[in-house]
Design goal:
The chain is an alpha+beta fold and 997 residues long. Among the domains are: 217 residues, Beta-Lactamase (2-Layer Sandwich); 99 residues, PAS domain (Beta-Lactamase, 2-Layer Sandwich); 119 residues, Beta-Lactamase; 167 residues, Heat Shock Protein 90 (2-Layer Sandwich). It is 44% helix and 24% strand. Strands 28, 29, 30, 31, 32, 33, 34 and 35 form an eight-stranded mixed beta sheet that branches. Strands 8-7-6-11-10-9 form a six-stranded antiparallel beta sheet, with helices on both faces. Strand 33 and strand 34 form a beta hairpin. Helix 2 packs across helix 6, helix 19 packs antiparallel against helix 20 and helix 22 packs antiparallel against helix 23. InterPro entries: BphY/WalK/GraS-like, GAF, GAF-like_dom_sf, HATPase_C_sf, HATPase_dom, His_kinase_dom, HisK_dim/P_dom, HisK_dim/P_sf. It catalyses: ATP + protein L-histidine = ADP + protein N-phospho-L-histidine.
Length: 997
């Protein structure tokens, strides 16, 4: 095999070998000149580096003061905006920021406090609508920088003070990480042009409040912002100073960022020795290189020989061709490729060595293109060899011609059979992924990790989001509205990047037709074609969400039904007779609103005259009253109603339009009634009338609890009628003549007994209603427990969680019924007034709480005036104090030691008892709300309870002729005050005695 010819580099090396032997003087001069030029260039570059450092420092100083000035201006602008909030919420001096404003203020880089100041003489001459900075001062142990703002007379002339915490400002300065001898400061510009230091980092106490006439004053006279270099008046250190005077209403403030020149140039000075050393080394290398050049060129010839050796051992087939496609050189690797030795190929063309005609033609066309254009090409071809059919990649490049020789092409052939097979396997895997992806029942999408552009979606995805594949692909998920905000998608990417698992996350989206859908989605970060992709899988839970919402609504309706029952039951207990008519009207309204009726009414029968008259009526908004026109209606108009009522059955008309044509239908249609029901009022075996409900303009579908409510209401009305008739007869008897008193006394006692029986029946009904309500609750709780105990293995985690929620709801409802009964019993509990020894009562009430207080390492004390007695019901007053002590411990956070204090003193003709704690307190705007039924300021999972405790306390105090009120500050505890009458035999007031627990 002939050796390759010398390349152009080898020939040049051979020619140059004689230049470095005789006559080296001109080369030495050239080398020395180059060294001098290198030294001058090095000095210029080093000095340019110094100037660049100073320029960057000046740019940094200017940038930092602009940024700090913008942050300070942002805080001042927000403070001005917050003043309107203070004006609307409170006009009292000293008012501070509201709860809604604080989170926004705290999110600033420079947070502040803002309050209104009383009008002060020293600020009368202050400019209007301008910030007037004051010197730093201490306020509640904290250093602040005050700034006063005076409104214009048209705005009210109020004074506000912005308090900027010095520590927050210094922390903002320190966050810049300034180098040594650098500082960041806030100055006040005086009227004479001088500057006063308000705050400086690093902090030097003696400089705070210092007034300086110096370079800053001179610079401000020229322009409001800029950068200069100067030696500081205070410490004599040279610095690069950037300053920015705030504009507009804050023009008396200036921020300054100063970089120590020595610190800025420290890297440059540290670089000088190395730059000198590097220059010396380069000069040495140039001299040494001159000596080495001759040796290198001589070695170039040896390099060519080494190339041949290397080519002979490479696995790639290397060949050289001329324009006719003749082999000029080929390495030994060709033998393993096609089974022929290099000697059998050199000197012969591609066609002559037996290359198949299509491959030979493709090769000759490629060689012609490379020879003609001079551009390299890559050729892919398959060729049968000793190892079977193999796939090859050929890099075809034109070689530079040697003087006097023809151009040649160098070809490097690489076997890529294994790579092609790997690519085929990858393609098959990708096709399998796409097949599984498209056929998956869950909605799936594949999008670009960075841009969010959808690259692949399956049919389930298109169906879920109501869009075609053509409308989805190529668009970003944010453009399509699949993400409501870009922040949501960015948060998801950050969680995935941190390694978090995203599974079954709740989300919502809107289809093009406006329908909102609820989904649960999972996400993965995957690699496709070497690129990051976001794979999302969605599950439609819209129907499940609707079912859960319906269940919650049903639970709410059940709660409202229970409350309605107790409200109706308690309304007529011990109600004076003269208030019964109004109470009936109110009760009709409650029942009508609960069942969404248009009209609720009571009719009484006059059997003697054969008529019925409307006695009480409630009408919804927009429904006209009919009570005046429905008087003395002939019973013959509705004979079948009379027959049904006589035997105690209700009359129900689902749709008036279904009645036969006649007077009844005409009467009902004239009132626009579509559905109605009536229940008889039965007194023993006699029907005295009926209570009814009309649905005006709509057809009503009945539910069981509505019918139960109406039946109970009808029985209440009967009891009330009996009571009214009894008390009416009693009132009539008391007006008879004195000689008939003895005769009528027996009748009066009988009437009283009947009244008591009616009250007991009403009370029995209340307890019966509560028992009937408890029975299904106990059934629900019991069967839920049995399901969890015996069938837990058949339920998934979600089903078990639903059962546990049902148990908690039933227990809560049971406690609610208990509390409502206790509330109803207050009418009897607080009816026995007597002298109560306050000290003895407090001792008995507080004892059960001592163990809980000790367990939480707290303190319970009471201070009672000796001999103090109150005129109250003992059981009612005990219940009030127990509830207040229980609330004091319950609303004290678990991480805080409770401190509860009770004080009891005589205040005029009343006993004042105060219970104070250090709990979490409440906002006074909710004061009246906390004493209402079912009014809670916290969720059930935060603080347990039914929301009836304080309502019972208020009711008990009302029954005892006393009152209760509270005062509180959020986070600082509460104080509850109760007043009851003092007992006439209570001794004169003395100093209270403290009893520690």
């Amino acid at each position: 095999m002939p050796a390759p010819r010398p390349t152009g580099t080898s020939a040049a090396a051979a020619n140059a070998s004689g230049l470095f032997l005789p006559g080296m003087g001109w080369q030495l001069v050239l080398a020395l000149g180059s060294m001098v030029l290198l030294m001058v260039l090095s000095i210029s570059l080093v000095w340019a580096q110094r100037d660049a450092l100073l320029d960057r420092a000046q740019a940094q100083a200017q940038r930092e003061v602009l940024r700090l000035g913008a942050e300070l201006d942002q805080s001042l602008r927000l403070a001005r905006a917050s003043m309107s909030g203070l004006d609307t919420e409170s006009s009292a001096p000293g008012a501070g920021l509201s709860d809604s404003q604080r989170p926004l203020i705290l999110a600033l880089d420079l947070p502040f406090a803002l309050k209104e100041l009383p009008v002060q003489p020293e600020y009368q001459e202050a400019p209007e609508r301008q910030w007037l900075p004051g010197l730093p001062r201490q306020d509640n142990g904290q250093w602040i920088i005050p700034m006063v703002w005076r409104q214009s007379a048209a705005e009210g002339g109020r004074l506000y003070e912005l308090q900027l915490a010095r520590e927050a400002l210094l922390a903002r300065f320190a966050s810049e990480g300034m180098p040594k001898d650098s500082s960041m400061s806030l100055f006040r510009i005086e009227d004479d042009g001088a500057t006063t230091v308000l705050s400086r980092h690093p902090l030097v106490e003696r400089e705070q409040g210092m007034k300086v006439h110096g370079h800053l004053s001179a610079a401000l006279n020229e322009r409001p912002s800029g950068v200069f270099r100067a030696t500081a008046v205070v410490d004599g250190i040279e610095r690069i100073v950037g300053y920015q005077r705030l504009a507009g209403d804050a023009q008396r403030l200036m921020v300054v960022y100063a970089l120590g020149t020595e610190s800025v140039l420290a890297p440059w000075k540290a670089l000088l020795p190395w730059a000198g050393l590097l220059t010396f080394l380069v000069m040495f290398a140039m001299g040494y290189g001159t000596w080495r050049l001759q040796r290198s060129m001589r070695a170039l010839h040896d390099s060519e020989r080494h190339f041949q050796t290397l080519a002979s051992h490479l696995p790639d087939v290397i060949a050289r061709y001329d324009r006719q496609g003749r082999f000029l050189y080929v390495n030994p690797a060709v033998e393993s490729a096609n089974g022929r030795s290099p000697e059998a190929l050199i000197g012969r063309t591609i066609t002559e060595v037996g290359t198949p005609e299509p491959i030979a033609a493709e090769w000759m066309a490629c060689l012609d293109r490379v020879f003609s254009s001079g551009l390299s090409e890559t050729l892919y071809f398959s060729y049968p060899g000793p190892k079977g059919m193999r796939h090859w990649e050929a890099q075809v490049s034109l070689e530079p011609p040697s003087q006097g020789e023809a151009q040649t092409v160098l070809v490097i052939n690489r076997d890529i059979t294994e790579r092609r097979e790997a690519q085929a396997r990858t393609l098959a895997a990708q096709q399998l992924f796409e097949t599984v992806f498209q056929s998956a029942p869950e909605a799936m999408s594949l999008g670009d990790w960075h841009t969010g552009q959808l690259l692949l979606v399956n049919d389930a995805f298109c169906a879920l989001f109501g869009r075609t594949r053509e409308n989805l692909l190529g668009h970003t998920s944010l453009e399509l509205g699949l993400w409501r905000t870009s922040r949501g998608r960015q948060d998801l990417l950050e969680e995935l990047a941190s390694g978090a698992s995203i599974r079954e996350v709740a989300g919502r989206s809107t289809r093009p037709d406006g329908e909102e859908i609820h989904v649960r989605y999972s996400a993965e970060r995957v690699q496709v074609d070497g690129q990051d992709r976001l794979l999302l899988m969605f599950r439609d839970v819209t129907q499940l969400e609707r079912e859960q919402q319906a269940a919650a609504q049903e639970q709410e309706r059940l709660s409202r039904f229970v409350l309605m029952l107790f409200r109706l039951a308690s309304r007529f207990i011990n109600l004076p007779v003269h208030q019964i008519d109004r109470a009936m009207d109110d009760a009709l309204g409650d029942v009508g609103r609960f069942v969404h009726a248009g009209r609720a009414y009571i009719f009484l029968y006059d059997h003697d005259n054969g008529t019925a008259s409307n006695t009480h009526e409630w009408c919804a908004d927009g429904v006209s009253a009919q009570i005046d026109t429905l008087q003395k209606i002939p019973m013959s108009l509705v004979p079948h109603w009379m027959e049904a009522h006589r035997i105690g059955q209700r009359v129900q008309i689902d749709d008036v339009h279904g009645l036969p044509v006649g007077p009844l239908r005409e009467l009902l249609e004239s009132q626009q009634i579509r559905s109605l029901t009536t229940l008889p009022l039965m007194v023993g075996e006699a029907c005295t009338g009926f209570v009814g409900l009309d649905w005006v303009g709509q057809v009503h579908e009945w539910v069981d609890e509505e019918m139960a409510l109406l039946e109970l209401f009808a029985q209440m009305l009967v009891n009330t009628q009996l009571r009214t008739q009894t008390e009416g007869r009693l009132h009539a008897l008391t007006g008879q003549l004195e000689q008939m008193v003895t005769e009528r006394t027996a009748q009066l006692q009988e009437s009283v007994q009947r009244l008591q029986v009616a009250n007991r029946e009403l009370e029995a009904f209340t307890y019966s209603a509560s028992h009937d309500l408890r029975t299904p609750l106990r059934g629900i709780e019991g069967f839920s427990a049995l399901l969890l105990q015996d069938h837990a293995d058949r339920l998934d985690a979600q089903g078990q969680d639903y059962l546990k929620r049902i148990q908690r709801a039933t227990l809560h409802m049971s406690q609610l019924i208990t509390d409502l009964l206790a509330y109803a019993r207050l009418e009897q509990m607080t009816g026995h007034m007597a002298a109560v020894d306050v000290a003895d009562l407090l001792e008995k009430v507080a004892q059960p709480f001592l163990e809980a207080v000790d367990r939480r390492q707290g303190q319970l004390t009471w201070h009672v005036q000796p001999g103090l007695k109150a005129q109250a019901d003992p059981r009612g007053l005990s219940m009030v104090l127990r509830n207040l002590l229980d609330n004091a411990l319950k609303f004290t956070p678990s991480d805080r030691h409770p401190v509860v204090r009770i004080e009891a003193v005589q205040d005029g003709e009343e006993v004042l008892v105060t219970v104070s704690d250090n709990g979490q307190g409440f906002d006074m705007k909710h004061h009246d709300r906390i004493f209402g039924m079912f009014q809670r300021l916290h969720r059930q999972d935060q603080i347990p309870g039914t929301g009836i405790g304080l309502a019972m306390v208020a009711k008990a105090m009302e029954r005892m002729g006393g009152r209760i009120w509270a005062d509180s500050v959020p986070g600082q505890g509460s104080r509850f005050h109760i007043r009851v009458a003092v007992h006439p035999q209570s001794p004169a007031p003395k100093a209270p005695t403290e009893v520690p627990a």
